[in-house]
Amino acid sequence: MTDLLTRARDYASYAHARINHKRKYTGQPYQVHLKSVVQILAQVTDDADMLAAAWLHDTVEDTEATHHQIEEQFGKNIAALVYQLTDISRPGDGNRMYRKALDRAHLAEASDKAKTIKLADVIDNTRDICKHDLKFARVYVHEVGALLDVLQGGDERLISQAQKALGKCSNKLGIELTTGSMTHADWEEHREQVAFSQRRTLRIFGESFTAQDIAEPLRSFDLESRPESLIKIFDQTLSGVFGVRDGGQVTGYVRRDDLIDDVGGVGSVSRAFARGQVLTARASLNDVVQVLTRYEFCFVSIMDGVAGVINRKDMEKPVVRMWLFGIVTMMEMNVSEFIRIRLADRWQAFCSQARLKKARELQTERLRLGQQVDLLDCLQLTDKAKIFIAAAGDTDQLGFTSKGEADKFARELEMLRNHLAHGQLIADSNWPQIVGLSRRLEDIIKGVGNRVMEEENHE
What we know:
Elements: H1 3-18, H2 31-42, H3 48-56, H4 59-62, H5 67-74, H6 76-85, H7 96-108, H8 112-132, H9 134-150, H10 156-173, H11 184-190, H12 199-207, E1 216-217, E2 220-222, H13 227-237, E3 241-246, E4 249-255, E5 271-272, E6 278-280, H14 285-292, E7 298-302, E8 305-310, H15 318-343, H16 353-368, H17 381-392, H18 403-421, H19 431-458
Parallel strand pairs: 2-3, 6-7
Antiparallel strand pairs: 1-8, 3-4, 4-5, 7-8
């Protein structure tokens, strides 16, 4: 194995292991999937850049790594392949069918090398899903059938392997494989179910907090500006990025590290905005978080021009902290409401005696202070979550693959709330929790929207 491939393997393995990313069905380290993709790809090519990108293909999509970091570590060619292999859709873009359509369109524009890597990924995923999850496989085979249509141009041998794997899976399911969008029946069977949600969640957290609330003004310079003059301004302002103007419009951006080599005007090192890297001023903070999982900077357009910028450090701002604390509080309120409606007073059977004892002690103290509070409200969030999970039964319906995963999410949620309550920094230490919470909120919001439409149609 070359030094490049060793570095790519180690980087990807560490990035996925750092967030405890495992294969959904087997619980194996995610590295197992990456290794399988590389091995499948190695059957048809010895291109070092392609093999390195295969190791790295999920790092930006699933870990804390950004496209800029991949470029810094492995160069522009590999970073470009990883970008082409990274889904561009965000949870707020719509339902699963629409998001998959966006991602297919993105892959349709990819290079043949990227398409070949994606084919290796499809082959391994198809084998894994068909072996372990026949219910989801009914949806997945239609999605992959549509995906193979846009992967033409990839290696023909891997196209053949992918078609065989897909055909074998569809035969096992006893369904006719079709291309294009999944059927309405298949979608209804798989559609994510949200166990609880309220209309106010959509109103408060979907509309009230936006990108313009936390964006900083983006200072910009003309294409002809000299790098050495900008370096001085970078150092004086401690800004991490400047906009680059062409004809009076900001068309790209430049980072300080881009100016190290004086190769001409700023235009020679200007970076174009990536697809999905620019949001409108009214975009939700959910969308901002999703952009920042993939890029170092999220840019904000105002009046059809890019005028603002956000980075992860802006997650420390009071508006964001208030937004996050509100989400956690709203989720806890919904969990409590669900328990009361579903279990009434029977919820104590799902709670340990030790936790009940602590809750009773806290209730006694609060009553002594004149606070009217019931026993359920004296439990910790993790206690309520365990009761909720036990009462709900099927964790798949809650968007989790297991009770262990659901328990872990609840613990991380409580840790984030504690850090927020005590004024601790969260952008670095709690970034995975912020991303997970944002995605969970998006699921809830979509659930609200679906239910509201159903109620209106019924009326």
